[in-house]
Amino acid sequence: MHPAERGPWTNAEVARSITEAANGDKSFEISETYIGYLRKGKRTNPTIGHLNALADFFGVPRTYWTDDGEGEKVREDIALLEALKGVGARQVALRQVASLDEDDLETLVPVLNALAKARGTRGRMKPRGRSAGAPDTGSASPL
User: Fold this and answer.
1) pTM to 2 decimals?
2) Is 103 exposed, middle or buried (0-12, 13-18, 19+ CB in 10 A)?
3) Per-residue model confidence (pLDDT) at position 59
4) What is the residue-wise DSSP string for 17-64?
5) CA-based radius of gyration for the chain
6) Which helix H or strand E contains 14, and what residues bound it?
7) Are 128 and 102 in contact (CB under 8 A)?
8) How far is CA 32 from each of CA 2, 3, 23, 25, 129, rounded to the nearest angstrom?
């Protein structure tokens, strides 16, 4: 994985970041050359410390390296995120919200309000068909 605005991490960037995070613990330091060997399959038995450091760096579960099912799940998640970026996650989310029934919306609105509050967003969402403090009349208007 790498940031969307750039290409893959270089061996030097990965090694430098992991070595800096090791805070002087030599057992967790890793060289640019060793990263290259791992990527090319010339080294196939990294230490647990190196596997953990690599998982932390790339933001994947530590089992990514040892559990084929976990690796496949991460690859599927990445593919889904890429697809969502292409479609536009906002449109996908809006379509999902539009398909919710009243009970689901009653559950979702407080969650969205808490998220908005945590992010400092002004304004509060109101459940469908109600104004703040109004009794439920059963009407269904769009968000």
Assistant:
1) 0.51
2) exposed
3) 84
4) HHHHHTTT-GGG---HHHHHHHHHTS-----HHHHHHHHHHHT--GGG
5) 23
6) helix 11-21
7) yes
8) 17, 20, 17, 17, 59
